[in-house]
Amino acid sequence: LTNIVWTPLESGIKSVSLSPNWMWPCNNPGENDRLYEAVKACSDFAVELGINIPTGKDSLSMKQKYKDGDVLAPGTVIITAAGQCQDIKKTVTPVAVANKGKLYYINLSSQKHVLGGSSLNQIRNKIGTEAPGIEDIEVFKKAFDLIQSLIDENKIIAGHDVSSGGLITSLLEMCFPSNHVGMQIDLTAVGEKDSVALLFGENSGVILQSESDLDSYFAAEGVTCYPIGMTDDSGKLSLKNHNDPLDLDVSHYRDVWFSTSAALDAHQNKCAEIRFSNYKTTPLKFKFPNNFNGSLSRSSGTKVKAAIIREKGSNSEREMAFAMHSVGFEVHDIHMTDLIEGRKTLDEYQFIAAVGGFSNSDVLGSAKGWAGAFLYNPKAKKSLDDFFAREDTLSLGVCNGCQLFIALGLITPEHDILPKMSHNDSGKFECQFTAVTVEESSSVMLQGMEGSTLGIWAAHGEGKFNLPLKESEYQIPAKYHHDQYPANPNGSDYNAAMLCSKNGRHLVMMPHLERSTFPWNWAHYPENRTDHFSPWITAFENAKQWIVNSK
C-alpha cells in the first residue's frame, strides 16, 4: 500500500484491490494454525481499511523431504495491490530535488521503532523479538487518502516509502538518482532515542518532499507528520538524532548500494565491470529541439494511409499505431499471413512500420525467420520489393523491425558488403532508458531535430550494428549520448543507434521511439515542462508532412 499510494487513484484507498500469494508448509505441526492466523490478520486489516481481496493463489506444500530430515519453507505471503490510476502524469517518484521545499516523515505504524524482521537483523543473523505492525488503522487510512489528495493538488515533489533497509536507506535512495543532491536531516522531533532502531527499523512509513506546510495539514486530520529537514546540492547526507550525528557521502553509498547488483551481474554479463565503472558517470542530459512546444505542431488534416507490419511474436504495434494515428495517419494492421496469402499488398500505402518484438520467438536468431517469410514467399516478397522500389514511400523499422530490414539488405542496397546485427557486447538482453543525440543526416523523419539529445527506451539482445565500411559510407542519424556501456547498450560500431538509407526515406533504429512518445513514458523527463507529447512525435509529424507534400 505504501508503494501504490504514490499514484493518484480514482477513489483513494477504496480503489485498491489486493491479491495475496500464500506460500506455506501446511499439514505440519502448528503450520495450519499459523496460516489461519495470518489469513485472518490480513482479512481483518483489509476489512478495516474498506478494501477487498477478490482473488489470490496459494502454494501449500512448501516442504522438501530428504533422507536425513525435512526442510520446511518459512510461511510467507506476498500481496499485490492494484487500483485504477486517474492520471498517470501525476505519479510521484522517489527522486529528491535539490534546494526545494522541506522533507517530512510519517510513521504510519503508530508504533515505536523496532528491528524485528529487518534487513539489519538479517545480515547479523538475527530475527528479533518485536516486529512492526499497524497500531492505528484509522490513522493509516487517513494518511493514505491525505497523501492522495496532496498528489492530486500537485503538492508533493517527491516521495518514498520506508521499507527494506529502513529510514536511512529510503533517504539515501532519494538522493541516488541525481549526482549532486544531498540532505540536511534532523530526526530529534520524532522522539525516538534509539537511533539504530529509528534508522534501520522497517516500520511502515513515508518520506515526503513538499513546498507546502504539511505538518499542520496532517495534524488537522489527526496524523502526526514530522518536518525532518531539507535538500541541498552538497552530495552529502548529514543526519542527526538527538546527539548522534552522521555524515554520509552519497556517491560512496551509491556504489555500496549498487555493488550487490554488480556482483550478481558479474556472473552473467561480460561487461559487468564496465557497467559498474560507468553507471554514474553518464548522466542523462537532454536538449530539446528549439521549436518544440510539447504539442502537435501541425493539424492532422487529411488522413494518410499507413501500415504496421507484424509477425507472430511481434509487439509494440499498439504504441506504434497510436503515435501514427495521433499525427493523422489512418493506420492499418497487416500480419505477415495477409501478405503471404495475398489478401493484402502494400500498393496503397506510402508509409510502413515494422515493429519490435520477438518474431517467431527468435528461434533462428532475431528477425531471421521474419526475413525468411519475405524471401521465400513470392507474394510477400513482391509486395515489399515493389514498395521499396517506389520513390513516394517511407519506412520505419524499430528493434525487431530494424533487424528485419537490415537482414533483407534494404537500408544500404548500394553496398557490396552489407551491415549485420549481432548480439550485444554484454552477451545478454538489455532493457534500459538511455538517450541518443540526433545527428545531421538525410533522414526525412528526423529533419529539424538535429542537435537534440532525447531520452529513449532500448530493449534488445541483438542490437549491435556491425558496419564493415568507413563511417562516412553510412547515414547515421542518431548516436547514443555516450559511447561507453551501458549508455550504449550494445557496442554498435560508430556508436550508432539508428541507420537510414542514402535518400533518407528508410529509417531503422534499435531503441523504441514509439515507447517514448509521451513524457510519462520516459524514466526521467525535464522538470517544469508541461508537454503532452515528447519530441519523438516530431518524427511521425515529419513523415506525414513529407507524404502530403509528395502528392
Describe the model.
Strand 22 (498-500) and strand 23 (506-509) form a beta hairpin. This protein has 551 residues and is of the alpha/beta class. The chain has helices at residues 31-49, 119-123, 137-152, 166-175, 195-200, 214-219, 250-265, 272-278, 317-326, 336-340, 368-375, 378-389, 400-407, 537-550; strands spanning 17-23, 57-59, 63-66, 69-72, 76-82, 102-107, 158-162, 182-186, 205-210, 226-232, 236-241, 244-249, 304-310, 329-335, 351-354, 394-398, 420-422, 430-438, 453-460, 464-466, 478-480, 498-500, 506-509. It has three domains: 17-82, no CATH class; 87-257, Phosphoribosyl-aminoimidazole Synthetase, Chain A, domain 2 (Alpha-Beta Complex); 304-550, 3-Layer(aba) Sandwich (Rossmann fold), CATH 3.40.50. The model has no long low-confidence stretch (mean pLDDT 96).
Helix content percent band: 25-40%
Instruction: Outline the biggest β-sheet.
Output: 7 strands, mixed
Alpha-carbon Rg, integer: 27 Å
Q: How many runs of DSSP E, i.e. beta strands?
A: 23
CATH architecture assignment of the largest domain: 3-Layer(aba) Sandwich
Structurally, the number of domains stands at: 3
Q: Report the sheet-strand fraction.
A: 15-25%
Low-confidence stretches: none
In order across it, which strands form the biggest sheet?
A: 7-9-6-10-8-11-12
CATH superfamily of the largest domain: Class I glutamine amidotransferase (GATase) domain
**Sheet/helix structural class:** alpha/beta
Provide the CATH topology of the largest domain. Rossmann fold
